[in-house]
Amino acid sequence: MSIALRQHIEKITPLTDQEFDYILSHFTSKKLKKHQFLIQEGDGVSNDYFVVKGLLKAYHVDSEGKEYIMQFAMEDWWISDYQAYFNHTKATLNIDCVEDVELLCLSLHNRDKLCADLHKIEHFFRRKSNMGYVALQRRILAMLNSNAKERYEQLLLQYPALFQRVPKTLIAAYLGVSRETLSRFYS
Amino acid sequence: MSIALRQHIEKITPLTDQEFDYILSHFTSKKLKKHQFLIQEGDGVSNDYFVVKGLLKAYHVDSEGKEYIMQFAMEDWWISDYQAYFNHTKATLNIDCVEDVELLCLSLHNRDKLCADLHKIEHFFRRKSNMGYVALQRRILAMLNSNAKERYEQLLLQYPALFQRVPKTLIAAYLGVSRETLSRFYS
DNA sequence: CGCGCGATTGAGTAATTTCAAATCTAGTGG
DNA sequence: CCACTAGATTTGAAATTACTCAATCGCGCG
Question: Which nucleotide is at minimal CA–C1' distance from B180?
């Protein structure tokens, strides 16, 4: 199962067997069933999570109980409440499982240790973070200058697999429209 | 002027004089007047820019000529078209000067060289990128679950200085509402 | 078969945009 | 110091868009 992690890292930087073993020793693993929570609002967040298998959503619920989805994560994605994780504060997001999941968990302490010990890994995380930053900028731009229908179509193009795995209600909560409005778009 | 950069980096990691001199030698400097372009859509983007003095905006203009502001940058902020910068593609954003500016410019090549040579600097950029990622997530969440009035008030709280320096039209273009709607909010 | 979840549809309401016009303000030159 | 102008802001009214609430439909699964 951890071969997925190795392949993932090696998309950015090659690793020796020893290096990968050393890296992997800093992770723990975790399995959860559909509908179980990984993180709930108010929790401390000690880990970043690499998704080996399954699908999760990170979301905020407002005072009226409406859900707003910050991110989905499926195989080869990372997910956490990064604000809480990096700043040692309480979670403002909930993360739960849309499907059964298998995760590899990396504590902030182990992440920093790995980065200090292995320049390659600090490089890897820097690049990942840069890529993530660019992706979020694209999402912001889409929210600013495209209406929900166009954003729906962009998302469909970019992550067709997602639409096979999550109900449209969640897509709507990700795009920031009501499910009724979304439903009217593709008719 | 470059003392600003040193102080900026040392918020994350301390530097010796030699280290800082070495770092600084990888930057070039640039001055621009109000209304001048730093980057125009379609340009290649060879640099990331650290703002020593002044204020800029990065924005996209759509087919109808409407502006959507991706980010502002004032003293101690970085600005570029990161998608183009990191991926060696053409700019999709325009960046121009809201005030006269002084910049320190870092090419991707020099950034990578610095990161390879000085673990501290790779650490610095990793941390900066993480912080930037979290900030963008917060902005996305605000766009999803707050209306424009609330976002206006959050922005006012977070960056009061910005409101002294940019017209409300630009604030509106950042928040994603028309200037008329924004105007009606604080009355 | 019937339950439950997700998706759809309709109608009324609320929020925002658009277009147009009026007003305000800071900077410029006389 | 004043008049003028360009840019910025405000206001009004109509049109558009999206939301909410309610009801209905469709389908897979026990």
Answer: D10
